[in-house]
Amino acid sequence: MKVAVIDYGMGNVFNVERALQAIGCYVVITNDARQIEEADAILLPGVGAFPQAMQSLEQTGLIPFLQRMATEKPFLGICLGMQLLFDSSTEGMPTKGLGLIPGTVERMRAKRLPHVGWNSILRDEDVYFVHSYHAVTDDEYIVAAAEYMGEKVPAIVQKGLVTGMQFHPEKSGTFGLSLLQEWKEAVEREITTRH
Amino acid sequence: MLKRRIIPCLDVKEGRVVKGIEFVQLRDIGDPVEIAKYYDESGADELVFLDITASTERRQTMLDVVSAVARKVFIPLTVGGGIRSLEDISSLLKAGADKVSLNTLAVESPSLIREAADRFGSQCIVVAIDVKFEDGAYYVYTYGGKQKTELLAVEWAKQVAALGAGELLVTSMNQDGKQNGYDLTILEQLREVVDIPIIASGGAGNAEHVVEALEKVDAALLASILHDRKTTVEEVKHVCTSHNLPMRFVSTKMN
């Protein structure tokens, strides 16, 4: 299975690449529309601030194309890449996102931020988080959530072919890899149904 | 609930892990990848690699170590020791480090903390503070504990947090190597003045010491007591759990 990891200059994409390779994916890091079109699935990584990330994505000229791709093939956003899936964010200045999942991204209320370290989600397994903003969205899109200082943190969100992970599955040990593996298997099922 | 973290620290010299590692179950006791895998499987939450090579070829060797480990072990990796520029940080992150730990460089050019945080994100900038209690105050040391500065630890911690450091790694030089417990006083003082995570280092002799530190701060760095097999990560975590500290246990095995 071939995954296109979108290269738009926001953060380190190599660890995502290594993790995907470890579970047997073929990875291409690219901002070329043809290569993305050829891939079986798309991964949007990202570390940093929301407004800069949207600006960098705009500079690639890929936004309308990615919005269309997200209705045609599995699309996974990780960390900031997950936040970009929503309608808008209040980080820095109010900024529009990709609008693939209804909701907004807002600063968490916790006194101590960032929310950094291992926190439990699904099946009481822990994953590695690093973030200060979180998605505010309808429960129907939340697959798994963590709890931090009394606040609910959407950890895995999903709508149609679009999935988001707020934490770093590529840095969450064996359990993190198993979540990527599950996503890979879902993509493979999707490919089979499509053909 | 957010877990407290246990972080084994490995000294790397010329591409090999050094300093009294006694794992009979490993094929090659100096191999960074094997040791990293061993600690990952025993529940380490992160790993710190400290580059103690003095030679000039050290950079490339350390990059090779980091990249070899990052292909096999999928938990956060921090690299410290001898980082001199933003370019050094960039190469380490590209090689697969998730965070870098700055010590002397941070003291000598504090503005680099801000530049590094802006360029790479606060989450990957750990500032290591070596502290020594003398003449009634905690002073900051640089150059691996050889050079005293006039900086007071509490003031320096506030400053680096304001400059964008993502975490603090605090080593007590008075306690380091003695194995009679962390310096809880300085940990408590720092906890009061900064909101970023604090990693305690220096002085752990047993799991109870780790408990004392983790009741005050977020994470504990462990070296000799793990390498000498006085205890294991898993054992330390069980003792912490019995003191109601939230810990992560590795349960899912792939295939």
Protein described:
- The complex is a heterodimer of chains A (195) and B (255).
- Chain A has 195 residues and is of the alpha/beta class.
- Helices cover 30% and strands 32% of the residues of chain A.
- A seven-stranded mixed sheet of chain A has the order 2-1-3-4-13-12-11.
- Chain B is an alpha/beta fold.
- Chain B is 35% helix and 24% strand.
- In chain B, strand 9 (167-172), helix 7 and strand 10 (198-201) form a beta-alpha-beta unit.
- The radius of gyration of chain B is 17 Å and the shape is globular.
- The chains are: A alpha/beta (195), B alpha/beta (255).
Percentage of residues assigned to helices of chain A: 25-40%
Work out the oligomeric state of the chains in this entry.
heterodimer
Helix/strand-derived category of chain B reads alpha/beta
Mean pLDDT of chain A: 94
What's the count of strands of chain A?
Answer: 13
- Shape by Cα distribution of chain B: globular
Shape of chain A: globular
* Tally of DSSP helical segments of chain B: 10
What's the helical proportion of residues of chain B?
25-40%
N-C termini distance of chain B:
28 Å
Q: How many helical stretches of chain A?
A: 6
- Would you list the SSEs of chain A in sequence order as H and E? EHEHEHHEHEEEEEEEEEH
Computed Rg of chain A: 15 Å
End-to-end gap of chain A: 14 Å
Most residues in contact, chain pair and counts:
A-B, 36 and 32 residues
